[in-house]
Task: structure prediction
Amino acid sequence: MAGTLNHELLNSLDLQVLSVQRTEAGRWWNYRHVISPFSRLWLILEGEAVVRHHGREFSLQPGQLHLVPAFAVHDCACAQGFNHYHLHFAARLPTGIDLFSLLDCEYQVVAPVAGLNLFQRLEAIYPERKLPCFDPGRAEYKRFPVLNTQEEPTAGVLAGFEARGVLTLLVAEFLKSARHHEGLHARVSRQFLAVQEYIQVHMRQTIRLADLARVVKLHPTYFSDQFQRVVGVRPLDYLVRRRVERAQYLLLTTQDSVKAIADAVGIADPAYFSRVFTRLCGASPTAYRSAHSA
Result:
């Protein structure tokens, strides 16, 4: 993990609790092709269920913690009963990249001895942060991450600080098994972190190759060649991917129009935005929003 994340990045990790609650699920807990712009963490208390993602099937049983990272497409089902705590959270680096997009890890681990106490403490800090419903396909479910990204007025600064500490302890259980992920974002993070940071800050603006090269103090042509050698794509192609990923997040968590989202990610021409999005995601922005539950 050291080659992917360093002390500075871990300390700057932005952790946010979006919702936390205990739920006794039944056969209704049966959803297909769920994809969310936030991560899920389940503590299984009683019963059994099944979840499938990353090409694997996991049996959820008492005493386990299970992680479904952001944007991981997954199916879940419960045959009888399933008593569990579920926590929805965001874990973003200053570059805007989700922590688990840089890592591979064990997605299911034995819960720590204090696991139940940690979930109960988060629920005590944020008693109002409950899901508006349990069906990921409903509009109110899709909107809830946006509504919950600000601290509750009654929580206070110290309570929010404590919540991030508790969430850190839970996330750390998965970082223990973390290993290098050879994906696109990880390669950029290791060699061109400043470029990622620049894109995150200036995404709404016009960004040229010369702007990115200036960040790392290289000639544009040399920078482009080096970037492609290390990352596997040209810098401007990577920029487009980052913009489309941000658009995916906005499509699933806001009710903004496609044009407004295109503007927000720095693509002024809605027609061009739709073509690029369709090429990279396999569906138009409108179809993507309709097809994917949040």
